[in-house]
Amino acid sequence: MASPLKKPSLSRVGLSTLLSSRASRLWLTVWVSSVSLAACGFEPIYRADNLRANVISNLEISDSRLGRQLDRALRSRIRPSAGAPWVATIDIKERLEDRQVDSQGVAQRARLTHRLELVLRETATGKTRVEVFQQEQFLNRSDSGGDEVAKLRALRALAVQALSQKLAAFLQALATPKERNQTR
User: Fold this and answer.
1) Beta-carbon neighbour count of residue 154 at 10 Å?
2) Among candidates 179, 164, 170, which has minimal Cα distance to 77?
3) pLDDT in tens for each of the 184 residues of the chain?
4) How far is CA 7 from CA 23, 28, 30, 97, 114, in A?
5) How many angstroms from the chain centroid is the CA of residue 100?
6) pTM for the whole thing?
7) Which end of the chain is more exposed for a tag (fewer CB within 10 A), N or C?
């Protein structure tokens, strides 16, 4: 005697039986989508964009190639406002050091470090506060100089974006609770 609760098989007939109900099709679509997104490396983006709180009244960034990249990345996230309690000065530096050297003394791997130094000066009292943010990446050297330059540019862009996100999140946390409520 056969069991009345038969499980559908994974044959064509079994799959068509399984997918006959709308709830099953919806569940399968969600499951396949989530597996596909997880397999491709998708990560949701949580951004601290458009900081409108009265945190900084002026933003000065060092005039260098990295400084200009950081300035472009920060302008969309942080808006200085008159009367804010802090003045911010930012200096960003890059250091590339060889980490792994082969038998001929040629570097095969390098460490790329970006260091952002934020100096906050309180407008009322003149007291200063220094915060340092750092982003570290590794670069595998190649025989092609063009490839290496392209990799360095891409790593710089990623580091500047990551540092701008860290800085915006820090400034958001620096805002008083009253100022944070004004941004919502």
Assistant:
1) 12
2) 164
3) 555 555 555 566 666 666 667 777 777 777 777 777 666 665 555 544 455 557 888 889 999 999 999 998 888 788 888 888 889 999 999 998 876 666 666 667 888 999 999 999 998 898 999 999 999 998 887 767 777 788 888 999 999 999 999 998 898 888 765 544 444 4
4) 17, 17, 22, 61, 57
5) 27
6) 0.64
7) N
